[in-house]
């Protein structure tokens, strides 16, 4: 089994990327972990001992910067993406980063003889579609048709196809590139900005979680530490079993119970804040009207003042739809099992959320 490996994690300062870097920092077969990102995560300075950690500030849309980062690398874990579900950026910008950036990573791997590339895709690359057809217990072999509901999903779908089609392509040294993809769904855990904002919203609403998701809709969740562990394990097993993992896509999963959003949030929030309760249901038509009016006002004010969107119609439609995978393909192909149990995942998430809330409170008090 090869040792002294050099890994490159694009987006290594991001939610999933940071956890991947922390896992790799513990592995004896890793000599160096390179982080390619636009921002340097503060956690990097806290990593002591173990493999060398090298931060490279760069832009995915700049091919020369990507090419320089992959020189001498054995494995690339490509997690970097513009996750813009509120559509604050233009589609051209999202496409340039998510699709064009992935093209640059693939091209650089082929040119620099990097033999292994693992891409962080998304369940959004599969669906839901614009018809809002449920995705109930799908597997990697499920045929699910229709136009992707989210623009983000469209870019991830194209990037995933590029990555998988690159599997087996010849590199400059004559060897072949091995690629595979992992598709997370609802990722929660430490440093999740969405999770923190949902808790703050409940606190500002008299400790009530108001909700827009009907009782007949739900989705799956995965703890970020388990998603990261799946990446690390898959990247290692790609080297040992390229004939098995090459060209494959895997849904991410763990032991987190299947829940509606409001129920999932309440179970976690009440671990450290028993005052949180379920609030009122807001019907689809009412929320659609609120979002539409807000967007109209934002459009009128755009030349003078840019309002930050709080919800989009596609996201509103998304939460009305059931979507989750039911699979054990990752276990069958490379022995994946969750690194953290549901109890551990919940405890770690709640500890972080409690500390993050206290830090915000202190910051406001001092300012």
Could you characterize the architecture of this molecule?
- 41% of the residues lie in helices and 17% in strands.
- It has a domain of 240 residues: NAD(P)-binding Rossmann-like Domain (Rossmann fold), CATH 3.40.50.720.
- The model has no long low-confidence stretch (mean pLDDT 91).
- With 367 residues, the chain is an alpha/beta fold.
Which tags fit this structure?
alpha/beta, 367 residues, seven-stranded parallel β-sheet, two-stranded parallel sheet
CATH fold name of the domain at 5-191 and 221-256 and 324-340: Rossmann fold
State the helicity in percent bands: 40-55%
Known CATH architecture of the domain at 5-191 and 221-256 and 324-340: 3-Layer(aba) Sandwich
Q: Identify the CATH homologous superfamily of the domain at 5-191 and 221-256 and 324-340.
A: NAD(P)-binding Rossmann-like Domain
Total strand segments: 13
Low-confidence stretches: none
Terminus-to-terminus distance: 54 Å
Number of helices: 12
Instruction: Characterize the main sheet.
Output: 7 strands, parallel
Beta-strand percentage?
A: 15-25%
CATH class of the domain at 5-191 and 221-256 and 324-340: Alpha Beta
Q: What is the mean predicted local confidence, pLDDT?
A: 91
Order of helices and strands: EHEEHEHEEHEEHEEHHEHEHHEHH
The structural class is alpha/beta
Rg estimate, integer Å: 21 Å
Shape: globular
Strand order of the largest sheet: 3-2-1-4-5-7-11
């Amino acid at each position: 089994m090869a040792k002294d490996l050099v890994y490159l994690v694009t987006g290594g300062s991001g939610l999933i990327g940071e956890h991947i870097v922390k896992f790799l920092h513990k592995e004896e077969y890793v000599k160096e972990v390179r982080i390619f990102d636009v921002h340097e995560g503060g956690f990097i300075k806290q990593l002591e001992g173990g493999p060398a950690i090298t931060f490279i500030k760069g832009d995915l849309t700049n091919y020369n910067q990507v090419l320089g980062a992959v020189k001498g690398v054995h494995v690339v874990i490509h997690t970097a993406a513009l996750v813009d579900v509120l559509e604050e950026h233009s589609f051209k910008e999202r496409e340039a980063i998510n699709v064009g950036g992935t093209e640059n990573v693939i091209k650089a791997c082929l040119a620099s003889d990097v033999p292994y590339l693992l891409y962080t895709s998304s369940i959004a690359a599969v669906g839901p579609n614009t018809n809002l057809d449920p995705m109930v217990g799908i597997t990697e072999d499920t045929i699910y048709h229709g136009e992707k509901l989210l623009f983000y999903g469209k870019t991830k779908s194209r990037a995933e196809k590029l990555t998988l089609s690159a599997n087996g392509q010849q590199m400059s040294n004559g060897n072949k590139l091995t690629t595979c993809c992992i598709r997370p769904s609802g990722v929660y855990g430490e440093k999740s900005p969405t999770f923190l904002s949902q808790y703050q919203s409940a606190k500002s609403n008299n400790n009530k979680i108001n909700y827009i998701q009907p009782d007949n809709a739900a989705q799956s969740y995965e703890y970020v530490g388990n998603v990261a562990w799946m990446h690390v394990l898959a990247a290692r097993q790609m080297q040992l079993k390229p004939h098995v993992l090459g060209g494959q896509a895997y849904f991410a999963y763990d032991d987190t119970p299947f829940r509606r959003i409001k129920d999932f949030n309440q179970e976690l929030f009440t671990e450290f804040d028993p005052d949180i309760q379920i609030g009122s249901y807001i019907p689809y038509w009412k929320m659609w009207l609120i979002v539409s009016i807000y967007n109209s006002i934002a459009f009128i004010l755009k030349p003078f003042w840019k309002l930050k969107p709080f919800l989009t119609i596609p996201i509103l439609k998304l939460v009305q739809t059931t979507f989750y995978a039911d699979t054990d393909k990752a276990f069958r192909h490379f022995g994946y099992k969750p690194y953290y149990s549901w109890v551990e995942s919940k405890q770690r998430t709640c500890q972080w959320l409690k500390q993050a809330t206290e830090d915000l409170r202190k910051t406001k008090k001092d300012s």
